[in-house]
Design a protein that fits this description.
Rossmann fold, 7 helices, 6 strands, globular
Length: 195
């Protein structure tokens, strides 16, 4: 099977994440999407408890049999890099072909990724265009497919800031995620501390 790996902090998961998953699957680029929330972040982002981020992902994707949520990075005690995760998955599931799903904004940061030249030999990329970000491919990234449909540019950071400012987020996250955030008093201080 062709498997799309969609990694990120998902802090919180929002409607743009959902649209990306739907687009990749509905276009037949892959058979399944495996979502890989990070335990810690390679660029030292401060995140809320991983179990809470996992729960929000399960609320959104738990009923879709084409989507799996993996704990591979959350259960690791080490800093996780994309290269390590891809190699681990390829070793564990040699029968599958893996593709990594990223936004065009990330292509400009690719040269900062851990051992990116080696990663380019391990996996091909599915890139979704984000407004104001052209695809930059100066470091050998092999692009398998491009999604050029306009997707919302809302970010998890903006959603956290809206929550801090006591503004409505219902246009940006599914209702079950909004309810979970409210019930657990998440992001009220505007940063990602464990609250």
């Amino acid at each position: 099977m062709k498997i799309g790996i969609f990694g990120g902090s998902f802090n919180p998961v929002h409607n743009s994440h959902i649209k990306i998953v739907e687009e990749v699957l509905n276009r037949g680029f892959v058979d399944e999407i495996w979502i890989v929330p990070c335990g810690s972040h390679a660029f030292e982002k401060n995140l809320i408890d991983p179990e809470k981020r996992l729960k929000m992902l399960e609320l959104v994707f738990g009923r879709d049999k084409r989507v799996k949520i993996l704990r591979i990075e959350i259960d690791s005690n080490e800093k996780n890099y994309t290269l390590d995760t891809i190699k681990n998955l390829k070793n564990k599931f040699p029968e599958h072909e893996f593709y990594f799903v990223i936004g065009s904004d990330v292509t400009g940061e690719y040269k900062k990724w851990y051992r990116h030249e080696e990663l380019s030999k391990e996996v091909k990329f599915i890139v979704y265009l984000r407004k104001s970000y052209k695809i930059k491919n100066d470091k050998g990234m092999i692009i398998y497919k491009i999604i050029n449909k306009n997707l919302s540019d809302i970010s998890s950071t903006e959603i956290r800031n809206l929550i801090k400012d006591k503004k409505n987020i219902s246009k940006f996250v599914p209702r079950e995620v909004e309810n979970y955030i409210k019930e657990n008093n998440l992001y009220k201080n505007g940063n990602c501390s464990k609250n």
